[in-house]
Here is the input.
Amino acid sequence: MQPSLELIATIYTPEQLATAPLDAPQIALAGRSNVGKSSLVNRLAGSKKLAKTSSTPGKTRSINFYRVHPAGYHLVDLPGYGYARISKAERAKWGELIEAYLRKASGLRAVAVLLDSRLDPQHLDIDMVSWLRQAGTPALAVLTKADKCTQRDLSRRQAQWRDLMRTPAPPLLFSSATGKGLAGLWHALDKAALG
Ligand code: GDP
Here is the structure.
């Protein structure tokens, strides 16, 4: 059966985290704005409308909690980071919200870090991966927009990230445009959330 997603909570400030379901088993989705996170969430949901996609990056300003049916764990869509065309103050506010969530989410099993397969590792992505390693939180790397690259470039990018992250498993390949990697992504999410 195709899993489905139900939006159960939306959080805008660190204070509101007190009301969020932080204890339930959950996987967070993180990535730079425009990496294709909303498109990926919509693919997981089998719907074009659940998460707002936009050609204007940085539109998702909240943390959205989705319950995965029937598995029962939560997927937590974090605001995209690194959007350049906003004020420094606003960017810092998002950073604080993401960090507060990562520190407080006792049910957090792993963070799926979305990485643009077309780009060399970006310093904000490397920062995120390092932060997670220091916190002891498993990172699940996902290369997005895989339809935009040749298999040769994808293999090279996978090897690059595997070395950087010092993990034996290469990043998953995913395309919201074609659906490539969808089954593998669900498998990895289920396994990380439920063991
Ligand atoms: P977000 O800011 O991370 O939520 O990114 P979006 O999901 O809004 O996607 C940003 C842009 O990349 C949009 O123009 C999408 O149509 C495009 N995009 C997202 N995923 C894919 C993909 O798998 N393949 C291709 N070719 N384009 C994609």
Summary: Residues 88-104 form the longest helix (17 residues). The first strand starts at residue 4 and ends at 11.
